[in-house]
Design goal:
Two copies of one chain form a homodimer. Chain A is of the alpha/beta class. The first copy, chain A, contains 17 helices and 15 strands. Chain A has a domain at 67-107 and 219-409: 3-Layer(aba) Sandwich (Rossmann fold).
């Protein structure tokens, strides 16, 4: 069963969790002075509307009409009950997922790409620069820029640029310009760190250009709360008072935050982050101030981190290969409001294939981390003979990740 | 705006157009005797339930409950008003599309793969064999077989098998077995004709195995009528009495038939088939009895055909490279109830990119033929100053066809 809502019921305000967090967020620090940064420090990179949202303590922030018009191209997204998976697991748990894979770019990323493009356009910016690893974020921003008439320049990690041309083609179909990073070292395979440096340098040195980030920051998680707000309403249509457990995969934290943050004020709802064993930021990282990028050019953020020079192994869930985590997610974990679990990628792909053969759709490798954790919780519910309502985030489809499935089915996937 | 329906409103019966056609269908003929074939001729390949549907004159045929249960994983599909495209074209036409790309396999094909798997399973068949060219049909059948616990063997045209591995991986993820065709000539690039021969031979020589076909036959078009039945209801929700024009891309005819057949009895609804200039079956073919396959093993069908030995050029819309057309579609065109138009692929991809940059989603190359014809009709409406309601079939997404977009954007696409 699926629960849909009419397009008139896309939420008209974002939910700001900041005033309801268990303790105050620590401010970002200037990378050189280590003093708290102010709006003027961010003005070369971001429009004032987003800088204001980054530090806002308002409980709700209105979504502008032109943003709603675009979100309604695919929102509200469906809430689906995974009955066939439940039957295969013989579990008394009721499993629901919120399907963000239906967006034009195939993931939750456009939820923030669209308002970021809108606010930049509204403040007269003509061009956005960003980085992308596997390509999910870059394609979401290229899509959003196409709809607001902005130019979009994407610095793509060179190894991905060469090995995964389809994401590049998506971006170009929407009119984006894509170049391999690092731009000045043509033999370097690149990393998210080099690509961030290229994009920030581009934005800082051109008057017509701003920078856009697809995760980690407060305003990004804010924009993603449409996911959880819709899910809460749809669960009620499905006859559920509340989810007992919410599960999301976690790289930078925007997908998990989008689904979970509207439920933070309800202490009866358990929150779980699923991350890869090979990049175990929340389960094995240290909570401290650290840089957002490898080169140490960004402000210092108070977060769980494996160290800004940590280079995770090349796993297929490229969207989860980040050394840090969103400050909001980090605070929730440190305070005990959210738990975290890490899974090796072979166990993750076993869950993905079980999902595909019962529910039909092929999930993104990132999403499959949440499916692994959900299946484990549903099996525990069976063993405990306990009814539970589990809601997980189906953050994206795997149609541009089929090489990973080929490697798994052929036994070529590294176990970690 | 999108119009959705609850999953309880998936149609519970298929619409059979046969009793309402302008003239009777001519029967298929035996390839050797040229006499009309009977059920016993088809029994080695198809279950009796499907053979019965192939010749039924009942106006409606009930959809079995287990089929509905699976269809409800993604149905009803959305009806979307393409307002941004309308604005870009500055047209008084109102453009709607029925989005079949949301199925697990990414196209309309599962609408018939699911009942075909169900009826075979119900009659004790353990295994299905089929052919696939670009891979859309093979992946739909592999998906359907996974959900009913059937084995699935797909003979894939060797050139596609080697050049487009992602569709093969999709089929394998659902548990299907995929081999390149022709199986006995490892240096031959293959064709749909060789693959049909391999699949039919497999089914004819194994007691546990039947054959499944993804287009052309009456029962296939019957299963696809859920598309048009839902669209009719959704158009009324949108406040439209009827569409003035229905447009669908046409290869074998199942996508077009699924959308258009429920509207055949209403003479105020104009019907238009969009096909590729390089395989212009309806616009330049001859109406006569011809074989369904290249080797002349299948029954003879009364249809428009370019000749069963016609080899179309290698265009990117692989799903439209078929020498014939469904007998039902052929009869509608010959009687004047439906028109047909042919477009060269560069003009088709221009329309696809315009759609992606206005509406956001990237269509399949097949679907883009319908978009080309729709844009042309909307521009004519503007020039005539005439309000029109245009409904087209968004038969599938282009996420596994991005190489074609790369070729188009780089100017490497052949013009025909």
């Amino acid at each position: 069963m699926r629960w849909t809502l009419p397009t008139t019921q896309v939420p008209e305000a974002w939910f700001n969790v900041v005033p309801q967090l268990p303790e105050p967020l620590q401010p970002p620090l200037h990378p050189a002075t280590r003093e708290p940064i102010g709006p003027q420090d961010l003005a070369p990179l971001f429009p004032m509307a987003l800088i204001g949202q980054e530090v806002s303590a308002a409980p709700w922030i209105d979504i502008p009409g032109p943003v709603l018009d675009v979100l309604r191209l695919w929102r509200p997204t469906p809430l689906v009950r995974a009955r066939r998976l439940e039957q295969a697991l013989d579990t008394p748990a009721r499993i629901y997922f919120k399907d963000e894979s239906v967006s034009p770019a195939g993931s939750h990323k456009p939820n923030t790409a669209v308002p970021q493009a809108f606010y930049n356009h509204a403040e007269g910016v003509m061009r956005l620069a960003t980085e992308t690893g596997a390509g999910q974020w870059g394609s979401a921003l290229a899509f959003a820029c196409a709809l607001f008439g902005l130019q979009c320049k994407v610095y793509m990690v060179r190894a991905s640029y060469q090995q995964k041309p389809y994401r590049r083609v998506m971006m170009e179909t929407w009119g984006g310009e894509v170049v391999p990073s690092p731009v000045d070292q043509p033999d370097h395979p690149g990393s998210l760190g080099t690509a961030i440096s290229d994009a920030v340098r581009d934005a800082a040195t051109r008057d017509d250009t701003h920078y856009a980030l697809g995760s980690v920051l407060n305003h990004v998680l804010l924009h993603q709360t449409v996911i959880g707000l819709e899910a809460r309403e749809q669960l009620q249509l499905a006859g559920e008072e509340r989810p007992d457990l919410i599960v999301g995969c976690c790289g930078g934290g925007s997908n998990l935050g989008g689904l979970a943050l509207p439920f933070v004020p309800d202490p009866k709802v358990e929150l779980l982050a699923a991350e890869p064993s090979s990049c175990p930021t929340l389960t094995e990282g240290r909570f401290d101030y650290d840089f957002g990028d490898t080169a140490g050019m960004t402000p210092l953020l108070a977060m769980y981190s494996l160290g800004h020079d940590f280079i995770p192994p090349s796993i297929h869930a490229g969207g989860l290969r980040y050394h840090g985590d969103a400050p909001i997610i980090s605070l929730l974990v440190r305070s005990g409001r959210m738990r975290a679990v890490a899974h090796p990628q072979t166990a993750v792909f076993e869950a993905a294939v079980q999902f595909a053969r019962t529910q039909g759709t092929i999930p993104a490798p990132e999403t499959a981390h949440a499916i692994r954790a959900t299946i484990d919780a549903a099996v525990q519910a069976r063993e405990a003979g306990r009814e539970r309502v589990i809601l997980f985030g189906y953050s994206g489809h795997g149609l541009l990740d089929l090489q990973a499935y080929d490697d798994f089915l052929a036994g070529r996937l590294a176990g970690t």
